[in-house]
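By convention, each integer encodes one residue's backbone shape. The lines below illustrate.
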Amino acid sequence: MKKTIKAFWACLLVCATTSGCVSIPNSQTVPAGYFKSKIHGGVRSEMEQINFVKLRMDKPAEELLGPNDVLGIYIAGITGAVDEPPPIHNIGPGVSTNDRPASGYPYQVRSDGTLSLPMLPEPIYVEGMSLVQAEEAIRAAYTLKRQIVRADANISVSMIKRRTYHVTVIREDIAADDMRSSSNNATLNGKGTAYMAGMSRGTATSLELPAYRNDVLEALSQTGGLPGLNAKNEVVILRKAYSEEFSNTDYMSGDLDVGYAQSQVADRYNATGTISDLSSELGIVRIPLRVGANEEPPQLTSEDVTLYDGDVVYIQSREAEVYYTGGLIKGGVYPIPRDYDLDVMGAIATAGGTVGASAGAAASNTSSRVGSLVPASRILVLREVNGKQYAIQIKQKEMLRDPSQRILIEPNDVILVEYTPIELWFNMLYNMVNLSVSPSDFD
């Protein structure tokens, strides 16, 4: 037993006089001020959101007619009997709240912007007109030019269905019911599995946006709202979003449905999870959602955010920006917030560790099997820069007193919390004293 006690004391002496009980000697570390306390590209908390109203198109004072609008037209004695009331549309259960009540018989504005009406030898051009102007043009065609009906005949024009634009929205950000808070990430197995396993390629959705609501904000609103925290801080619009195989003669001549290309984009993305195999000749508009403090917000025009047939709105997931923990903190991987900065103190707290705790609290929050009389105060942040690893050493007391010591965490940093040799010596002595040791053991 005497030999065991002597060997034990010799081990304590070695730990107290050398740096062999720490992972990286002090001589191989750098101070907290060695790197600038900023994340690549600027400090996240200083970034500001753009005005999301800019994602909405400017609506004119009066909505004008265009191809594919469906009008309700009633001409007494022509489209209906004089003594019969016109049919009523857009009223009743199942009708969209965006549809306005309308009356009359349905007539669609043709692709050349004209209307073909009964008993008129030539079509009436109505594209770019308001409903009132279109009604006046129809009345003039029937009463002045041809005198088909009396001047006081009952003629009315209303909008049954506004023309729509086929748009595809591809979203790679996590759905709302899959989002979890950082605190849940910290407690789920200590490994951040909720964050890593929750990442998915998302979905592709085909929309039909009515005229004067065919903008980016409407497309986002119908597919889950603004980009989530796991999406990049930008919205990408792909113009002319179809590859050469979609641009065949049938499609360009209008023999195929206008939504054919968009549905092919959606089907291909849902099947493969990528749009990289589409044509490289895509017109691309990038709209940043957050800008730095010294950056000018994007000067968006109504044309920039207006969507047309064949456009694809792409919300791309951001790279998995995480940091790792080890040492006396339970090992795990945790996400770095997208929109605000995380310093080393906050990172330790997120991982379930404690900073500046009493001895008892520190003992209850450590994964070490050795009881603690003195809490660990040596913090190392392992960071790789240009292929070389640096060990940044931070002393807990200095970090509590001096905010400049609380460096910002960058992607792929590794945070280790360790005992100094003296702290380890005292804690081992504390555990030895707590053992049931008989005085005869020292004989």
